[in-house]
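ABC transporter ATP-binding protein
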Amino acid sequence: MIRVEHLSVSYGKKQVLQDFSLTIRDKELVALIGPNGSGKSSLLKAVARILPYEGKIFLDEVEARDMSRKDYAKRLAVVGQFNDMAFDMTVMDMVLMGRTPYKGLLERDTDKDRAMAGEALAAVGMESYAARSLRALSGGERQRAVLARALVQETDHLLLDEATNHLDIYYQLKLLSMVKDTKLTVVAALHDMNLALAYGDRIVALKEGKLLFDDAPENVTPAMIEALYATPCTLHEVDGRPVAVFKKP
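C-alpha cells:
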C-alpha cells in the first residue's frame, strides 16, 4: 500500500502540488492522468524521494522518512520517461544495478543475480540484447531494459512516470500488461487517456496540482474528461472497457 497525506511540493515559490492525499491499495494499478504541468511527475518524484516535500508518505504503514535509502529501494522501484546514462555499460550490467539495494559496498553479482536479470530481460523481450551497449539502443529498447532493472529490484511497489512515452503501440500495451500481471502496487502516470482507461483499476486525475477526480474507469464520464483536458469527447464501450474518442478543436 502507498499512502500520501497532505502532500505539497514546490519549485522555489511555485507550488505544483497542494495538500494532496491519496491511498493506493495493495496490488492496485492506479492510472495518474492530467494535463502537462498538473503535478503528476512531481507527485511521483516526491513518493520516490527525489523531490523534497511537505506532508507524509507511507509504504505499508511505514513512513518514508523513517527508512534508509537502501531499505526504501527494497520496497519501491521507479521507471521514468528519460533514461539517459551518464556513462556507457552493457544492458546486462545496467539491469544488474537493480540488485544494488541487496548488496554490500564491494559485494559482487552472484549467479542468482545474473539469472534474475536474464529472466527479467526475457520478460521484456530483451534477452538477446544483454551484451549490447546501452548507447546502441533505441529509446524504446532502453525503456524496456530499465523496466527489467526495476523487476529485478524485487519490490512490492512500482512507479511508472510516463514510462510508455518512448514506446511504440505494441510495447506500450505489452509493458502495461506485464506490469498489471506482476500484481505489484503500481502508480502509472500516463498521457494516453485510453491506456489509463484500459489498464487502470482506478483513474486519478490531477489538474493544477489538485485532485479533480478519483474513480473507477467505468464511472468516468465525458464531462469529467472535458473538465480535465478542456476537450470534448465521447465514450464507447469496447471489450467491457470505455474508450475515449476526442473531438477536433
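The radius of gyration is 18 Å.
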